[in-house]
Amino acid sequence: LSIDLDDVRIAQLAQQVELQDAGVRCGIVDFMASSLAVPDQAVLLDTRSLRFRKLPLSAGTAVLVLDPGTGESPQRPNGLCNQRRAECEEAARLLGVQSLRDVEHLEPIEALPDPLRRRARHVFTENARVLRAMASPEPRALGELMNASHASRRDDYENSTPEADLMVELLQAQPGVHGARLTGGLGGACVALCDAQDVQQVAREVLAQYRRRRHHARQLVPNAQ
């Protein structure tokens, strides 16, 4: 059986499963990352046009992904995703734009009532961080942007968990780690940009420290050796 599907169409179909069957008002980023990603490259994606390009990661670096395990949360991840989507849509409506990506300056966002102000501020600053990362992909600069991204997710978008915050903190404190952040929100994983020669040592040390605090965790990428 041969089915003529490219990587973008596969991502679109996967997103439709979440939207229609699971009832999650999610975006397409995770699905495009799964269908397009290859080792040693980053993907710059425009989620409106679905145009993308792949950019090489700096030589001598590696991506480490750790799963902090499922933390207790007052809301299910699906419910939180839908709530955040609704908050961003309401913020866009109050700002008179189709989407928060159409806001050109931070000042009108700061005039919104909370929590809409913080939700919109996260989206605005996160978009700016992505563009800065593409302009300056040097590991140290990219790591600083990852750290800022996690702080914004934790404080403004509020889709992190205490478990993820702890794991990111442990990662950020490790020699050989340029930066770390949560990806995926509640129930997501923690991703770190590391010096390639240190990645397995970083994984062992962070998992050991994390488990000593009675948490379950596992290494996802690269495969444990």
Description:
This protein has 225 residues and is α+β, with helices and mostly antiparallel strands. It is 49% helix and 16% strand. The chain contains eight helices and six strands, in the order H-H-E-E-E-H-H-H-H-H-E-E-H-E. The strands form two sheets. The protein has a four-stranded antiparallel beta sheet. The protein has a two-stranded antiparallel ribbon with strand order 1-2. Helix 3 (77-95) crosses helix 5 (116-135). It is globular.
Key traits:
6 strands, 49% helix, 225 residues, 8 helices, two-stranded antiparallel ribbon, 4-stranded antiparallel β-sheet, alpha+beta
Count the helices. How many? 8
Shape: globular
Structural class comes to alpha+beta
For the largest beta sheet, what order do the strands appear in spatially? 4-5-3-6
Approximately what portion of the residues adopt beta-strand conformation? 15-25%
Indicate the radius of gyration in whole angstroms: 18 Å
Whole-number average pLDDT?
Answer: 90
The helix fraction, in percent, is 40-55%
Q: What does the main sheet amount to?
A: 4 strands, antiparallel
Measured between the Cα atoms of the first and last residue, the distance is 36 Å
Oligomeric composition of the shown chains: single chain
Name the helix and strand elements from N-terminus to C-terminus, one letter apiece.
HHEEEHHHHHEEHE
Q: Unreliable stretches, pLDDT < 50, 5 or more residues?
A: 71-75
Instruction: Please count the beta strands (DSSP E, at least 2 residues each).
Output: 6
